[in-house]
């Protein structure tokens, strides 16, 4: 139904408009008494295949990646579709509108998206209140970042604010230093600033009676030397794991015409073309670390086989974003069945 009816209708609109239309109905469903139940009724059935990680019990290993439900507006709806966990954000301390529009583009031929959203979100205070009101018990991750106006030297303060404010309303955290759409953000992936940032967050985490898993989301564009640094940093700071990978700035694997890609301009590429590189990064991290920390695999998963590729490369769980937009809720069921 999604691919035959809903996707053709939504694809008549520009991607950001289609996103807002979709979320209007998802938010309405969450508000109405039987709305979420109706979503569950019409969604493909996803059987429970529990996975325990970091002391959390996931009903299945398929999560919604950060970036789709930035503002925690439709968690209950996504849970009803069968996701085993939902990651919200990226959340920043202060609300920000993000980069100028247009900033989200479809590459239909490649089953891909290019975005330069720029951490547009309602800010941590509003999102925290929204998280308090959710009804579903689905596991929720909080993806946190820094405001655009915050210099890198003070970035740790932004991450600490988000950590403290969201601590009571999320189950795990993801440190996002890998988006290409906030100027200078990826500089925080270098060894010293990243070690310092994660160490400060872990220091704050240890003050809590119940520590929450802190993961790091990395770019697919890191070199082998940088990936080796990531392994060292994870082992040194004792964070819970890695999410591999975010969007890429590489354009070499596209079949869309170079002129069309060039006309779009800057932004992070997600979707099918990222699959191989993200899988290679997962395999590299898993082998170099001897499997010493869990990896959540994300990037280009538009089929059950591609999800399995990530698991076989060393991922413990996977997340969907662009593949979900192109394939719809049935993709969750197909992946879950493949893992059974």
CATH superfamily: Aldolase class I
Distance between the termini: 24 Å
Q: Compute the number of strand runs.
A: 13
CATH architecture: Alpha-Beta Barrel
β-sheet strand percentage: 15-25%
If you average the pLDDT, what whole number results? 97
Structural class: alpha/beta
Ranges with pLDDT <50 over ≥5 residues?
A: none
**Helix and strand run:** HHHEEEHEEEHEHEHEHEHEHEHEHH
- As laid out across the biggest beta sheet, the strand order is 3-4-7-8-9-10-12-13
The CATH class turns out to be: Alpha Beta
Keywords:
alpha/beta, TIM Barrel, eight-stranded parallel barrel, 13 helices, globular, transmembrane helix, transmembrane, dihydroorotate dehydrogenase (quinone) activity
Describe this structure in words.
- The relative contact order is 0.14.
- The model has no long low-confidence stretch (mean pLDDT 97).
- Helix 11 (304-313) links the parallel strand 12 and strand 13.
- The protein has an eight-stranded parallel β-barrel with strand order 3-4-7-8-9-10-12-13, surrounded by six helices. Strands 5-6-11 form a three-stranded antiparallel β-sheet. It has a two-stranded antiparallel ribbon with strand order 1-2.
- The protein is an alpha/beta fold and 340 residues long.
- The chain has 13 helices and 13 strands.
- Helix 3 runs parallel beside helix 4 and helix 6 (155-166) packs parallel to helix 7 (191-206).
- It has helices spanning 2-10, 15-31, 35-42, 75-81, 124-132, 155-166, 191-206, 224-237, 258-264, 275-288, 304-313, 322-327, 330-339, and strands at residues 51-53, 56-58, 62-64, 85-91, 104-107, 112-115, 139-144, 172-176, 214-218, 241-244, 268-271, 295-298, 317-320.
- The radius of gyration is 19 Å and the shape is globular.
- It has one domain: TIM Barrel.
């Amino acid at each position: 139904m999604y691919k035959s009816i809903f996707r053709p209708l939504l694809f008549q609109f520009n991607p950001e408009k289609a996103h807002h239309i979709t979320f209007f109905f998802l938010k309405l469903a969450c508000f109405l008494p039987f709305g979420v139940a109706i979503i569950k009724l019409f969604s493909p059935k996803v059987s429970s295949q529990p996975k325990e990680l970091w002391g959390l019990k996931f009903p299945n290993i398929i999560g919604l990646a950060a970036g789709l439900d930035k503002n925690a507006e439709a968690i209950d709806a996504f849970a009803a579709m069968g996701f085993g966990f939902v990651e919200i954000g990226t959340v920043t301390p202060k609300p920000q509108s993000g980069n100028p529009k247009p900033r989200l583009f479809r590459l239909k031929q490649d089953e891909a998206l290019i975005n330069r959203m720029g951490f547009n979100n309602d800010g941590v205070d509003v999102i925290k209140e929204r998280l308090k009101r959710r009804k579903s018990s689905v596991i929720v991750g909080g993806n946190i970042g820094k405001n655009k106006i915050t210099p890198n030297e003070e970035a740790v303060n932004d991450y600490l604010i988000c950590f403290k404010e969201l601590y009571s309303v999320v189950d795990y955290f993801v440190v996002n230093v890998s988006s290409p759409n906030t100027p200078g953000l990826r500089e925080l992936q270098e060894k010293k600033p990243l070690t310092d940032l994660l160490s400060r967050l872990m220091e704050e985490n240890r003050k809590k009676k119940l520590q929450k898993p802190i993961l790091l989301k990395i770019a697919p564009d890191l070199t082998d030397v940088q990936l080796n640094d990531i392994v060292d940093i994870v082992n040194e700071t004792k964070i819970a794991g890695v999410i591999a990978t975010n969007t890429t700035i590489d354009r070499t694997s596209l079949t869309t015409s170079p002129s069309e890609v060039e006309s779009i301009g800057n932004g992070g590429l997600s979707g099918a073309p990222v699959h191989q590189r993200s899988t290679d990064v997962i395999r590299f991290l898993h082998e170099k670390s001897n499997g010493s920390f869990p990896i959540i695999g994300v990037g280009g998963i538009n089929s059950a086989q591609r999800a399995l590729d990530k698991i076989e490369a060393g991922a413990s769980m996977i997340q969907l974003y662009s593949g979900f937009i192109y394939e719809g809720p049935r993709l969750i069921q197909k992946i879950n069945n493949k893992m059974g």
